Amino acid sequence: MANPGGRFLRGCVRGSDPLGAGLRTVALCASVAGSALLPARAQADAPARVVSINLCTDQLAMMLAAPGQLVSVSALAVEPQSSSMVEEARGIPQNYGQAEQVFLLRPDLVLAGAFTARATVDLLRRLGVTVVELPPADSLDDVAAHLRLVGAAMGREAEAERLVARYEADLARLRVSAEPAPAAMYYPNGYTTGAGTLADEILRHTGFSNVAVAAGLAGGGILPLERLVMAEPEMVVTSLPYPGASRSEEILVHPALQAVRERAGSAEVTDADWICGTPHVLRAVAGMGEARRGLDAMQLSQAAP
Amino acid sequence: MSYRGLLAALGALVTLLFAASLLVGPAALGFTESVVALLTGRGEAVVLVMREIRLPRALLGLMVGAVLGLSGAAMQGFLRNPLAEPGLIGVSSSAALGAVIALQTGIAAAFTLALPLAALAGAALSVLLILGLAGPRGGALALILAGIAISALAGAGVALVLNLSPNPFAAMEIVFWMMGSLADRSMVHVALAAPFMLLGTLMLLTLGRGLDALTLGEDAAEAMGVRLGRLRLVLIFGTALSVGAAVAVAGTVGFVGLVVPHVLRPLVGARPSRLLPAAALGGAAMLLAADIAVRVIAPDRDLKLGVLTALVGSPFFLHLIWRMRRLEA
């Protein structure tokens, strides 16, 4: 996700690596998985016991798994602030991602995030467990690639293709072609997401331009509040506050930011649907598309009298 | 330089730094554009930046620095010890503990004044403890040891409360409470802290004559009609009000109360009554300068204020200890 706090809590994060790196990792993972699981391989050879230790692989695996195939998901999968599939995850035992616990589940396949729990992944591999690592999704295309990757690893290629087809059709349907309106993603501590991120692609797909990209940010980074105000975004998308108090989140209720949001007349929040590269991002895309059309309607009504 | 001349020079310096603080920031705004926006309210986004982001920051720099310098001078006058400083002897960290408890228990969200009041309570408790442990006649050693113990305890309390918070950001803010910052503060914070700081400042400024008399010793002061009990009470509440409110919005900024009175003392003929207003102006100048420096050195990083004041302050502190060792030997 898009802030340092989220990095700790949430399994699926994106690093600030340049655009190309993430895609290269996808290709690498795909080729590794592909060599182990040839397309012609029979369904019977599919891993019978799959354990996921990352929020994003949790959700992909839940969508793809055959009944009983997924034996455990990470504890984050049942956190409503992080997971889009809390209901589905409740029926599956949760793990905390430590090697010992995961190994005792006797998995044939472990699904992990590329930037989380390095030591755990290394240890599991030394113990002879097959681990497939999934890099964070940096684009809307990555969602399809990740579905195929996890589907191949789990021996569920047909299911993956079905989901990909539906995802791509829905994504095309949800595209908003309009004059890009400037928008900003704004998180605690003034963190924002720039070029080469999933959030940026969601903005561009729904008729917005990202002011962080205009400010020269690639990946995630800090955009001082002053510069956000001067960019005059017509839409500010912020995150939901965590329980408890923090000074970091106070910036989201700063009077200057609130003035910008009031002027914009519309405000959206990011939630679990924005975190992972799964078909659930379509809900985020739909929400932003709705907001974009609302912006046009508001400007029309202001222009009318 | 005459005393009036000194105050005028310090006043001019503070004005200059206040103006500079308004003109420095990550959004590169033109000079005329910013001044016009600030004064007339023309130019939508620029007005927001000037009035809602930079003005509260400059105001807080001015106020927080002034109360830290002033309370340092007042405590040093009362304890007749140049090492007494709110940051060093744990008053600031106790205020931070009060503030953090108010924030994390949710009292601060339920009732607006709870935040400064809790910080005030923390500060008052620590001043009482310090005066009890080190006493008005307590030597430097007792003062510093008591201060270290209270600082460590309050610091540990802050870290504990923030680590136990359900909010993932809270634990990362330990450094803010220990080092202080004015980044992204708003007029809400100014309004919250200003009345407390103003009241505390007025209380501390009345102490001048009593502190002057106290330089001759407690007996002489009492003979001159100074009521020590009352003096002590005003000092405790004045310091707690001003430092508590400052810490509640800006975190703990150390060394201002140590360095500023130390530099200015020779210039005012070592008279506490003259040092108090001069130290308030000097503190404001030091904090404004530090806050400008953090924005110039690392514009996008929220470098903490305490980092800069400690870089300047620690050598002073070591120098003071060195001189006291020579005097005691």
From TrEMBL, chain A:
Listed Pfam families: Peripla_BP_2
All residue ranges annotated as the Fe/B12 periplasmic-binding domain in the record: 49-299
Gene3D superfamilies per the UniProt record, alphabetical: Nitrogenase molybdenum iron protein domain
Database matches in InterPro entries: ABC_Transporter_SBP, ABC_transptr_periplasmic_BD
PANTHER family recorded: MOLYBDATE-BINDING PROTEIN MOLA, VITAMIN B12-BINDING PROTEIN
Protein name: ABC transporter substrate-binding protein
UniProtKB/TrEMBL annotation, chain B:
Keyword Transmembrane recorded: yes
One GO biological process term: siderophore-iron import into cell
GO molecular function, one term: transmembrane transporter activity
Topology in membrane: Multi-pass membrane protein
A cellular-component GO term for this protein: plasma membrane
CDD domains: TM_ABC_iron-siderophores_like (cd06550)
Transmembrane segments: 56-75, 87-107, 113-134, 141-166, 186-207, 233-258, 278-298, 305-322
SUPFAM superfamilies assigned to the protein according to its UniProt record, in alphabetical order: ABC transporter involved in vitamin B12 uptake, BtuC
Sorted UniProt keywords: Cell membrane, Membrane, Transmembrane, Transmembrane helix, Transport
Location within or outside the cell: Cell membrane
Presence of keyword tRNA processing: no
Classification via Pfam families: FecCD
Family: Belongs to the binding-protein-dependent transport system permease family. FecCD subfamily.
Name recorded for this polypeptide: ABC transporter permease
